[in-house]
What we know:
Layout: H1 4-13, E1 17-21, H2 28-35, E2 45-49, E3 59-62, H3 68-75, H4 90-101, E4 108-109, E5 118-121, E6 143-145, E7 149-153, E8 160-163, E9 167-171, E10 174-177, H5 184-194, E11 199-206, H6 209-215, H7 225-233, E12 238-241, E13 248-250, E14 255-261, E15 266-269, E16 284-296, E17 301-303, H8 316-333, E18 339-344, E19 353-358, H9 365-375, H10 377-380, E20 385-390, H11 398-408, H12 411-414, E21 415-422, E22 437-444, H13 463-475
Parallel strand pairs: 1-2, 3-17, 4-12, 19-20, 20-22
Antiparallel strand pairs: 2-3, 5-16, 6-9, 7-8, 7-11, 9-10, 10-16, 11-14, 12-13, 14-16, 15-16, 18-19, 21-22
Bound molecules: flavin mononucleotide and manganese (II) ion (MN).
Amino acid sequence: MLDLRFFLEQLQSRKILQVIEDADWDEEIGAFSELVPQMQNGGPAVLFDRIKGYPEGYRLLINSMNSLERLSLIFGLDEQVDVKVENNTQFVDWFRKKLRTVQPIPLRKVASAPLLENVLLDGDIDLYKFPVPKWHPLDGGRYIGTGDMVITRDPEEGWINYGTYRVLVQDRRSVGCYIPRGKHGGIHREKSFSRGETWPVAICLGQHPLLFLGSCMEYPYGLCEMEFVGGLTGKPVEVIEGPMTGLPIPANAEIVLEGEAAFGDVKEEGPFGEWMGYYGSPVRAEPLIRIKSILHRNNPILLGCPPNRPPLDEQSLFRCLFRSALIWDEMEKAGVPDVRGVWCHREGGSRLFTVVAIKQRYPGHARQAGLIATECHAGAFFGRFTIVVDDDIEPWDLSKVIWALGTRVDPEQDVEILRRTWSTPSDPIIPRNKKGFNSRMIIDACRPYEWKEEFAPVVTARPEMLQAVKNKMQKLGLFI
Ligand SMILES: Cc1cc2nc3c(=O)[nH]c(=O)nc-3n(C[C@H](O)[C@H](O)[C@H](O)COP(=O)(O)O)c2cc1C
Ligand SMILES: [Mn+2]
């Protein structure tokens, strides 16, 4: 059941939910969000209740997706994936198969929903009713939307997009939202404004993590993320028609804001502690979304998923698994043969450092793989390094990747630089006056194709000897 409360029950029965009371929304919850994911096995999910200054029941959940066990629960696939395997590539394989086979299922409209238990209009609209954290000390305000879904419609083509973009409380009745150019919600916004219309938005601030994970995935332009989620579970996602915007809002959501923005009505947004571990984007003017209604369940739960410095943060594990699968899938669809693995390393926030393994088949195969991994939809935004390795290197194994870099790369001929690629104001290495573009490095760390057969052999014993000695060592109590 795609209900956050059902998921909480599952966490509770597995004893991976910690309730914390009396925490302060002002930086203290943020500090928890930095430290808890650094614990063993990703730490527990944490549900904050009785947050300072707020009544019991107005809750906030963090760290709810930061382990393979939790991700398996969310996707309902306990049986199929061995969640104990470190650096789990099985999850990527499973998800890649889904990407190939899932047929999107249209949303199903329902008339009633728990979300309609409370409908706040006009003078009752007050965003400070909810325990919105100030996550990091230098944040420009209290960010209500981190584990959110911003719902918009393409005013020309009619399709609905669900995208996760951060949301700042600007005052009691308006929010700001950070959507760099090219993101789907941003394209919808641009289209509405260029038609001289206002931009209607619904912002979902608490929902089952599967819906959230669908929303923050780089699913292709023109396709509705919640129809894909429906396809994944085999059942349509149930939605109500937003009373103010008509947008399809998940019926079991916890808190939803409906509003609209008008061209030229802007306010400064930022800074915000971002996923690369920096306050990368300078303060900019962003459209003010003026809230027309708040819908919420009794005792509502905000889903928090704040950025912190990778790799031991809440976001980079699921982003690593999904982006690896999405890039792999797009490479195959683009006709790159013999891709043996893709890994978007958490150390790079699962964007900045992508490794692709191939079995080289023909001259230029490695460059083709590197270029497409870098510029396909799932990889195009804000990447930095793409490394292509032979299939004897597991792309998730950093120490082997670095060994291949050191021994199979002649920088003079194995490095390509792409210029003026898609970046964002958040990119910390790009100076203020040049924000928007960045460059990419593609490193071909495969053995050179034309003399790969003569390439220096790897030092290792014969496989049968290795196995025999491993057996002997085990008997002696010597384990590797
Ligand atoms: C917790 C979290 C916060 C995010 N915040 C933003 C954001 O503020 N702006 C943004 O453009 N992308 C943000 N992203 C990434 C987008 O959700 C992701 O690129 C998604 O594919 C966007 O949807 P779209 O492809 O439909 O545009 C965030 C992702 C996560 C997991
Ligand atoms: Mn989209």
